[in-house]
């Protein structure tokens, strides 16, 4: 077995494992699938170890493959972070930040926080990736992104919560809706009698709602299930029904009075949190650290007791 490991071949292995299929990895890399297969085969030959298990639905890494993938991931992150710090030491004041977030944070982020950050740091660039709760955690744990904005994530030993602020799930309705006129917290049983739109099961709001249903032995039958908060906003604004979301995710609608946020009488829904997360043990480059501190201090989602 050779002492040197070809980094390019490691990248092919990494991408194949990431996408779960050689063809998908090849599409992402812009090469022919045979190139990916050949390079991984050569790596297996050099190391005298099987690195991928092939099955009908794609590929998955073996234990040896997982070890190499983890090595490649950490090496890549360390290299990128070191280069970023070198640029900072050289006084270039440049940098790039990868941010992953749930859709509910978009309006808050774009409504002023990001613009103010760029006015202070005009030479920094940012990429934004929208994802559900599970995907946000995976992107941070796998070091694909520096910072994640996520709503009520499950505990994960790979993740560090840098800020956690209670942001209860509210009933979001038009002011003229019967439930909005009650002028008191509403119960899940009352909500179940009305047309309801909710997020898909991969999102934190839906996962928490499922737990609340179980705790109260109430079954909600949504008329609409979606991966888009924007669609839910239009669903409610059009008078088609109500939804269940944290207030900050529809802040502009609440501010202009087109929608209202009604407390829900449920301990689980009242305990939900908005969090900013990073990977445990990762030292962020200066640019990402600056953005992290800025978001904690500026975003409405991380201000306690707003609504």
From TrEMBL:
GO terms for cellular component: cytosol. SUPFAM superfamilies: Periplasmic binding protein-like II (SSF53850), Winged helix' DNA-binding domain (SSF46785). GO terms for molecular function: DNA binding; DNA-binding transcription factor activity. InterPro entries: HTH-type_LysR_regulators, LysR_HTH_N, LysR_subst-bd, WH-like_DNA-bd_sf, WH_DNA-bd_sf. It comes from the Bacteria. Residues 5-62 form the HTH lysR-type domain. Pfam families: HTH_1, LysR_substrate. The keyword Transcription regulation applies. Keywords: DNA-binding, Transcription, Transcription regulation. Belongs to the LysR transcriptional regulatory family. NodD regulates the expression of the nodABCFE genes which encode other nodulation proteins. NodD is also a negative regulator of its own expression. Binds flavonoids as inducers. This is DNA-binding transcriptional LysR family regulator.
């Amino acid at each position: 077995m050779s002492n040197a490991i070809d980094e390019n071949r490691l990248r092919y292995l990494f991408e194949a494992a990431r996408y779960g299929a050689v063809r998908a990895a090849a599409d992402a890399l812009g090469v022919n699938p045979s190139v990916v297969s050949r390079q991984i085969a050569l790596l297996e030959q050099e190391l005298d170890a099987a690195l991928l298990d092939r099955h009908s639905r794609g590929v998955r890494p073996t234990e040896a493959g997982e070890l190499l993938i983890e090595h490649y991931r950490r090496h890549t992150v360390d290299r990128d972070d070191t280069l970023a710090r070198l640029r900072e030491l050289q006084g270039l004041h440049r940098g790039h930040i990868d941010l992953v977030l749930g859709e509910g944070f978009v309006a808050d982020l774009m409504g002023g926080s990001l613009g103010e950050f760029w006015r202070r740091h005009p030479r920094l660039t940012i990429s934004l990736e929208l994802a559900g709760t599970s995907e946000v955690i995976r992107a941070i744990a796998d070091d694909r992104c520096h910072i994640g904005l996520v709503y009520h994530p499950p505990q994960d030993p790979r993740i560090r919560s840098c800020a956690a602020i209670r942001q209860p799930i509210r009933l979001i309705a038009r002011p003229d809706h019967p439930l909005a006129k009650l002028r008191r917290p509403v119960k899940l049983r009352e909500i179940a009698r009305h047309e309801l739109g909710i997020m898909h099961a991969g999102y934190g709001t839906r996962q928490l709602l499922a737990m609340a249903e179980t705790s109260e032995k109430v079954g909600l039958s949504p008329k609409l299930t979606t991966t888009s908060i924007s669609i839910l906003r239009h669903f409610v604004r059009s008078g088609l029904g109500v939804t269940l979301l944290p207030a900050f995710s529809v802040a502009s609608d609440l501010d202009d009075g087109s929608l209202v946020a009604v407390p829900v009488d449920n301990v689980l829904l009242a305990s939900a949190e908005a969090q900013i997360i990073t990977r445990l043990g990762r030292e962020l480059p200066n640019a990402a650290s600056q953005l992290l501190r800025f978001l904690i201090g500026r975003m409405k989602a991380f201000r306690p007791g707003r609504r």
